[in-house]
Amino acid sequence: MFLWHILSHNVIPLCIMIGLGAVMERKFQLDIRTFSKLIFYLFTPVMLFKMLYESRLSAGILLQIVGFIVFFLLVLYAIVDGVARLRGMNGGMRSAMRNSVLFYNSANYAIPLNQLVFAGNPFTMSVQLIVMVFQSILPHTYGIYAVNAHKSNKKEILKTILGMPAIYVIPVALLMNGLRIPVPKPVYEPITYISNGYVALSLLTLGVQLGQMQWRIDQLRDVLISNALRLVAGPLIGFGIVMAMGLEGLLAQALVLSCAVPTSLSSVLLSVEFDNEPEFAGQAVFASTMFSIVTVTIVIYCLRFIP
């Protein structure tokens, strides 16, 4: 039942959208950099603003969630960086490997998955939204630094990061949320329209990238390593951290589930925008989405053992 539900409500819809992007690319040879710029400079910051502006979690729960995410990412970073060094990866490939594990699909995969597993519980959905916001911020800061650190100086990297609208949207949205400042309806309606289009445009962009790239057998081992770290090590580390932090109940279960989802489209978008191993990034996203049919089902079953 769980397997079919995940397949029909998550994986198949994702694959249809990705497939449409690949077909459009094969037929029309689309400009993927235009797609990536639309996502980085318009759709992502607008989506971030909407999610942060509408968030209603208490400060205490918010701190616990942020603490978990930071702890989780630090542990995962240490592991994936160690593996990349053991594999003898160069600067560009090492950053692509890290991004494929650290950036996970917390939006268009994790949100419907959360709704399924927790029967639309508003508390667990709020937890997932905070994870999603954090995962949206990370590629626009650390992610940009990671893919450019081996080929640009720090001044140029900082200039690139400061050119990303998402980092300015965050404090504005939080301030307006805290002060309950209303957004005029003529302004908020376009925000809603653009935010709703984020998932579709991101999936189509991935499809365009997959339609352009040449599948490389020599990268298969690295793709499988990335998938294992993302889909197996990720939830295991998440489970260990909720136990270490003493988190229980729905909060702990929602956080562990958030760690189990496949690689984010952000890793592909970064690779395309900054020309950093786009073939590997696309293969990692595609393969992890397919393998997640099995791994996420196992994680869902194991959630019952969290007190």
Could you explain how this protein is built, in words?
The protein has 307 residues and is mainly α. It is 79% helix and 0% strand. It has 14 helices and no strands. It has helices spanning 2-28, 32-54, 59-86, 91-102, 110-117, 122-148, 154-162, 166-178, 185-196, 198-212, 220-245, 249-258, 265-273, 278-302. It is globular, with a radius of gyration of 19 Å.
Number of strands: 0
* Cα gyration radius (Å): 19 Å
Q: Please tell me what the overall shape is.
A: globular
Helix content: over 70%
Question: SSE order in H/E notation?
Answer: HHHHHHHHHHHHHH
Which blocks of ≥5 consecutive residues have pLDDT under 50? Answer: none
Task: Please give a quick description of this structure.
With 307 residues, this protein is mostly helical. The chain has helices at residues 2-28, 32-54, 59-86, 91-102, 110-117, 122-148, 154-162, 166-178, 185-196, 198-212, 220-245, 249-258, 265-273, 278-302. Helix 6 (122-148) packs parallel to helix 13 (265-273).
Chain-wise SSE layout:
Layout: H1 2-28, H2 32-54, H3 59-86, H4 91-102, H5 110-117, H6 122-148, H7 154-162, H8 166-178, H9 185-196, H10 198-212, H11 220-245, H12 249-258, H13 265-273, H14 278-302
Helix pairs in contact: 1-10, 1-14, 2-6, 2-8, 2-9, 2-10, 2-13, 3-4, 3-6, 3-11, 4-6, 4-11, 4-14, 5-6, 6-7, 6-12, 6-13, 10-13, 11-12, 11-14, 13-14
